[in-house]
C-alpha cells in the first residue's frame, strides 16, 4: 500500500503526463513554417503577426527561457504550454548552450505553420562573464544564473517575462503582464514567495545566504522591468 508521499508523486506524474498529452493534442501538424524573424544558420521560420479576438491590439509578450544540459524536454513542454494557452502574440528569446541550440531550433521548426502566425523566436547562446564562465554556468542548476545577467544582455528590451524551463503554463501568459501596471520606475522585477510552508520551504531547510523573510522568493518566474 502506497504511502501518502508515494501517492502524491504518482498524482504529480499523472498530471504531467496528461498535461503533456493535452498540449501535444492542441498542436495540429500542417506544412512547414513561412518566412519571418531571424534565427541561426540563416533560417527564417516565422511569419508576420496576426491575432484575432480581444487580444489583437495587444503588443507581443516577450518570454525568456534558458536551456542547458538535459533540460530540452522540460523547455519544449514549457514553450508548448505557453503557446497553447496564450492568445496574444508571443516573442520568444531562447538562450541555450552549444549542445542544445541546434536541437532546440530543430524541435521548434517541427511546429505547425499556424503557430507561427503569432509567434516569433530568437535563439541565442548563453553568455556569462569571461573570468568565471564555467563557475557561473554550473552554479545551482546548469545555466540557471543566466537570469541574473538579463538586464545587461537585453539592453534594448522594455519588459520581459523570464521563466525556468520547468514552468508549465495553465493560463495565458499575457495575464501576468497586469503586474507591470502596478510597478513604477523604482521597481526592477516582480516575484512571488517561495512555497509558504515552513516544513518544506527550501530557504528554511537549505538556505545558506540571506533571503527575504519570511519565506524567501522564487526566481523561477520573474517579471523584469528593464526600462
UniProtKB/TrEMBL annotation:
Q: What is its EC number?
A: 2.4.2.42
Instruction: Give the Gene3D superfamilies listed for this entry.
Output: Spore Coat Polysaccharide Biosynthesis Protein SpsA, Chain A
The UniProt keywords, alphabetically, are:
Glycoprotein, Glycosyltransferase, Membrane, Signal, Signal-anchor, Transferase, Transmembrane, Transmembrane helix
Membrane association type: Single-pass type II membrane protein
Q: Which Pfam families match?
A: Glyco_transf_8
For this record, an example GO cellular component is: membrane
Please list the reactions this protein catalyses: 3-O-(beta-D-glucosyl)-L-seryl-[EGF-like domain protein] + UDP-alpha-D-xylose = 3-O-[alpha-D-xylosyl-(1->3)-beta-D-glucosyl]-L-seryl-[EGF-like domain protein] + UDP + H(+)
Spell out the subcellular localization from the entry: Membrane
Signal peptide (residue range): 1-22
Q: Which GO terms describe its biological process?
A: protein O-linked glycosylation via N-acetyl-galactosamine
Q: Name one GO molecular function term.
A: UDP-D-xylose:beta-D-glucoside alpha-1,3-D-xylosyltransferase activity
Q: Which InterPro entries match?
A: Glyco_trans_8, Glycosyltransferase_8, Nucleotide-diphossugar_trans
Q: What PANTHER family does the entry give?
A: IP22168P
> What's this protein's function?
Glycosyltransferase which elongates the O-linked glucose attached to EGF-like repeats in the extracellular domain of Notch proteins by catalyzing the addition of xylose.
Q: Which family does it belong to?
A: Belongs to the glycosyltransferase 8 family.
What name does UniProt use for this protein?
UDP-D-xylose:beta-D-glucoside alpha-1,3-D-xylosyltransferase
To which species is this protein native?
Ixodes ricinus
Starting at the broadest rank, the lineage of the source organism is: Eukaryota, Metazoa, Ecdysozoa, Arthropoda, Chelicerata
